[in-house]
Specification:
Radius of gyration of chain B: 20 Å
Number of helices of chain A: 9
Structural class of chain B: alpha/beta
Chains: A alpha/beta (250), B alpha/beta (281), C mainly alpha (298)
Number of helices of chain B: 10
Largest interface: A-C, 41 and 29 residues
Oligomer: heterotrimer
Low-confidence stretches of chain B: 275-281
Largest sheet of chain B: 6 strands, mixed
Low-confidence stretches of chain A: none
Strand content of chain B: 15-25%
Helix content of chain B: 25-40%
Number of strands of chain A: 10
Strand content of chain A: 25-35%
Strand order of the largest sheet of chain B: 7-8-9-3-10-11
Helix content of chain A: 25-40%
Number of strands of chain B: 11
Mean pLDDT of chain A: 90
Shape of chain B: globular
Order of helices and strands of chain B: EEEHEEEHEHHHHHEHEHEEH
């Protein structure tokens, strides 16, 4: 088996004194696309925040590409793992142009050739060059999300954490972003860890998924089980039925 | 079929911008009996504006014009602001997307529901309380006595939305407009809330306009569907016939949705240029 | 030119920023009160720069034969007890007023911004210590505190400026902290943190630009207060020293003659009121166009 891109062991996370995630364990292989699904409050986003260092109160083990993670964001980690957020309206600085936004990670890490890198990245995420000096309020939701994805890719990370990347978007725009994420993964061999509540999106983009409820993983299944409706756990099956799927015996 | 409950002809909603007036709703016509009508569209399609203009809730400088806009024989356009206030809530109700913003944070839930009833007529105290509790039961809240004494921040999103529905339905309106009533909720709660709306609407023989971006959801809970795109109705069909949709936009929307058993390598993307001239949003 | 500024697809950073500035400017022009305010402030600036060309007499030249003359064609605002032309003194006084407000703004606003942003961004004990200090300063009346500082440092313009600046910054710290807290946990700040940016960089490059507009608005609105405090210090003889034509000091001298020679105290008083009003109007207008919660969304 290949080296694990993300490996979690006995991971428990709390916000202040409130525990929200309990003893979670799973591994995501390199190049795999793994989904965390569940309803709001199930702790799925919290896991992403713990891995990235935004939720520092955790115990257990987190390692990314074989390296153990600390409890805060750090510069070396930034180059291997980046995150895309849910809300395209809240994840871009309102006073900075697309260009500023994409050049910032390069400036932080002292990487040169910013001009060409920004231009290339705009091409890669399918944004026309004329968007380069626009402010976020001059962009639509889908365009903003493309910028957010571009920003995450500027440091050429190997692992991407995706927090509901399409749930705030219209159906037709969602399709464009999903296609883009699939294309980028294929071209750059990225590993995805995606949080979503939308099971059909998992079916389109992911290889495996973990179903979470009340801070615990109740089932880890291959995407085939989802496609055929053969999930084992009663809660997963409930979720599947509520999303409009037709259940089959497990 | 008797005279329709709601009859709208050539409804236009206009907003002035720095580059001249823009029509957000471009002369749409439809009518509604005591049935469930779904209006589907993406953001910016004008679906919410349509809902709001029925209640004359479009704020200045927006302007609503129509050749005809009647509700149960009443001409909505010629009503004074005061007459409209009497209609709102009593005969036409609206459920909004997020209960967090529509409930008064410093009043208990029971008081708020009671007030919705009191503004449209007087009732003795005891009867009022009984009505509130039975309404809470109707929206499937288990311990109505306890919940009635809670404040909005003490209940979950799903329960908040059910409280909203109770509040909107207690004056027994003839028409309920639900604007994305479940978008802020989890999938399993979504179904519950919609089932409640569905039960009450069909039970009381009300009209329902369900506004949503979710085609599947609307087709499950409505009799008829209007698909809107950039201010126009591009498709109007029976809910069951959605898969036989004819307009390119509707077909595109249906195809763009990933399915549970997705095998396509790439999702088809809407080619907006085929039916609109303006830039998409 | 205007098309270039309003281009939806700017081709350079400069064009994008100029375009934004232009939009703010045109929005400001649509507010009549703001235009009045801007004009008053503009007149103040022009008067300060070109004082020698505008003033008909020397601001300090005495002419004892013509003392306490009422307003006339020769002396538009009359003369004071030493025969100095009040109009010329008011014009030169614009220099002192402008010097005081700019210096106070330049000293107090950045201190307040940084203290507030650091306090809001880090939270915890940093926040408690910094805000404790801020609250101590905030709890004392401005003029009294300024008086105490001037008393300790000695009277004079420079000390008056320092004293006013010391009393002015806590407000900006409070504003900056409140703003910072609202977007400290927002996703765009999280995103730069995840890119490995240091706390200093996040605060300077990402947090401060967002606090800037509300601070600019607040500073403009505070200008009136600063002018009044400066005038108050001058009036009490602790600000600019004679024979400098400081407006507050002029009123103070005119007090002796207020019943018989009303113009001596009234003319500089008008100047103070007018300029304070100008800054208030401008500040109100700026709030409408700069406030990130109102603008930007359209």
């Amino acid at each position: 088996m290949k080296k694990a891109a993300i490996h979690l062991e006995d991971l428990s996370i709390s916000y202040g004194k409130t525990p929200v995630v309990f003893d979670v364990e799973f591994s995501v292989a390199e190049g795999e696309s793994f989904a965390l699904v569940g309803e709001s409050g199930s702790g799925k986003s919290t896991i992403l925040r713990a891995i990235s260092g935004l939720a520092p109160d955790w115990t257990g083990k987190i390692s990314v590409l074989g390296k153990p993670r600390g409890h805060a964001p750090d510069r070396a980690f930034a180059k291997t793992c980046q995150m895309v957020f849910q809300d395209p309206y809240g994840s871009l600085h309102p006073r900075k142009t697309v260009d500023d936004c994409l050049a910032e990670p390069l400036a932080v890490h002292g990487i040169g050739g910013r001009d060409t890198r920004v231009k290339d990245m705009l091409d890669a995420v399918g944004l026309d060059q004329r968007f380069r000096f626009r402010f976020p309020h001059q962009l639509s939701g889908g365009q903003r999300q493309r910028v957010a994805i571009a920003r995450a890719l500027m440091l050429e990370p190997r692992v991407m954490l995706l927090d509901e990347p399409t749930s705030a978007l219209d159906v037709s725009v969602q399709a464009e972003i999903l296609n883009l994420l699939k294309k980028l993964r294929r071209e750059q061999g990225l590993t995805y860890l995606m949080v979503t509540h939308n099971l059909p999106v998992v079916s389109f983009l992911c290889d495996r998924m973990a179903v979470m409820r009340h801070g615990r993983v109740v089932e880890i299944a291959k995407v085939d089980a989802l496609k055929t409706g053969r999930l084992a756990n009663p809660y997963s099956r409930e979720l599947y039925a509520a999303s409009g799927g037709t259940l089959q015996p497990a | 079929m008797s005279a329709p409950l709601l009859d709208i002809e050539n409804l236009t909603v206009t907003f002035p911008t720095s580059r001249g007036p823009v029509d957000v709703v471009k002369g749409i016509s439809f009518s509604l009996g005591r049935e469930r009508l779904g209006i589907v569209g993406e953001s910016g399609s004008g679906k919410s504006m349509t809902g709001r203009s029925i209640l004359r809730l479009i704020r200045k400088p927006g302007r609503v014009t129509a050749d005809r806009m009647t509700f149960d024989g009443i001409d909505l356009l010629s009503q004074s602001e005061r007459q409209m206030r009497e209609l709102r809530g009593a005969r036409i109700s609206m459920v909004m997307q997020d209960p967090k913003f529509s409930l008064n944070p410093v009043m208990t839930i029971g008081d708020q529901i009671g007030e919705a009833l009191l503004t449209h007529g007087k009732l003795p105290r005891r009867e009022l309380k009984a009505r509130v509790l039975s309404m809470l039961e109707a929206v499937r809240i288990n311990e109505p006595e306890r919940v009635a004494n809670l404040y909005p921040h003490e209940v979950s999103g799903g329960m908040g939305q059910r409280v909203m529905i109770a509040m909107m339905l207690i004056p027994e309106p003839d028409l309920l407009i639900a604007d994305e009533p479940t978008s802020a909720l989890d999938v399993s709660v979504q179904a519950q809330v919609l089932d409640i709306i569905d039960d009450l609407v069909t039970g009381k023989g009300m009209g329902l306009i369900l506004i949503s971006h979710d085609l599947n959801l609307v087709s499950r809970y409505c009799d008829r569907i209007l698909v809107m795109n950039s201010g126009e109705i591009v498709e109007s069909c029976k809910a069951g016939d959605l898969n036989k949709a004819t307009h390119a936009y509707t077909k595109g929307l249906l195809a763009a949705m990933p399915r549970m058993d997705e095998e396509r390598d790439e999702l088809p993307v809407l080619d907006r240029s085929t039916w609109t001239t303006g830039a998409g949003t | 030119m205007i098309d270039w500024l309003l281009d939806d697809s700017p081709t350079s950073r400069l064009q994008a920023n100029l375009g934004r500035a232009w939009r703010v400017w045109t929005a400001l022009l649509r507010n009549p009160l703001a235009v009045v305010g801007a004009l008053i402030v503009l007149v103040l600036v022009v008067m300060a720069i070109f004082a020698p060309l505008i003033a008909p007499y020397s601001p300090v030249g005495q002419d004892l034969a013509n003392r306490l003359m009422p307003p006339s064609a020769e002396h538009w605002m009359g003369t004071d007890e030493l025969g100095r032309d009040i109009y010329s003194r008011v014009v030169y006084g614009a220099r002192i007023t402008l010097l005081i407000v700019t210096m106070v703004a330049v000293i107090a606003a950045p201190i307040g911004l940084v203290v507030g942003a650091v306090s809001g961004y880090f939270g915890g004990w940093v926040d408690r210590v910094l805000m404790g200090v801020t609250d101590i300063f905030l709890s004392m009346p401005k003029l009294i505190l300024a008086l105490a500082f001037v008393a300790a440092l000695g009277p004079g313009i420079e000390n008056a400026i320092i004293a006013i600046a010391i009393t002015a910054w806590p407000v900006y710290a409070r504003i900056a902290r409140a703003e910072t807290i609202t977007f400290r946990d927002s996703e765009f700040i999280s995103a730069v943190r995840l890119q490995g940016a240091s706390a200093t960089r996040v605060i300077l490059r990402h947090v401060l630009p967002l606090c800037a507009s509300s601070t600019i608005v607040r500073v403009t609105l505070d200008m009136a207060g600063i002018i009044l405090t400066a005038a108050g210090l001058g009036f009490l003889g602790l600000g600019a020293q004679p024979p400098l034509p400081e407006w507050g000091a002029m009123i103070s001298r005119g007090r002796n003659f207020i019943l018989d020679q009303w113009w001596v105290a009234t003319m500089p008083g008008f100047a103070i009121i007018l300029v304070s009003l100008g800054f208030c109007f401008l500040g109100d207008g700026l709030r409408d166009v700069l406030d990130p919660k109102q603008g930007e969304k359209q």
